[in-house]
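Ligand-bound model needed. adenosine monophosphate.
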Amino acid sequence: MKLILLGAPGAGKGTQAEILAKMLGIPTISTGNILRAAMKNGTPVGLKAKEYVESGRLVPDEVIIGIIRERLAEPDCAGGYILDGVPRTIPQAQAMEDGGIDIDCALSIEVADQTIIDRMSGRRTCPDCGASFHVVANPPKTEGVCDNCGAALTIRKDDAPETVRARLVTYHAETEPLKEFYAKRGKLVSVDNQPGIAETTQVIVKALGL
Ligand code: AMP
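Prediction:
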């Protein structure tokens, strides 16, 4: 299964990607997580990406295309993958297609903007392993501590309400047109976000026929 997850920031792509990845035994590739790790390690890509990521703007397409080409060439991607947060623009999708990167399905998780704004204030992220939690919907076992690796959870700088609003504007302008791009290729499947994580997984599993 080669799957793209589409949806606004905070739609639950990362959470659902992790669940589906375990279910299907394939890796999740999140460009957001790759960029945050690069920023933390001070690599050249990280230094280039920092100002964009922290202000909620999209990192230039050529940086993302380079990252994704390199990552998808790794052996663990041979049996399929879930792309979380990429492609995010038509040029990225076009470059992937032109580069022979195969996609079976683009799954769009539909959520109202106001739900996103309310939800993002509760998100907590692990700076070490990239895992994502929510204080109400998906709390860690111990408050403020990552279940996977034990690191102290943080609030992402770009989850501040003003930045979330800017990211939503970018989403509607730059990323939403991808729905039409994949619909034209007969690859778009849309589901509505549900009140709980497990219910959303259920509608996804049904929509994908898993
Ligand atoms: P995410 O964790 O997917 O919400 O991504 C966090 C931030 O990383 C975004 O707001 C962008 O600044 C940057 N980013 C992640 N993926 C992409 C992408 N495919 N294209 C451009 N920028 C990206």
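The chain has nine helices and seven strands.
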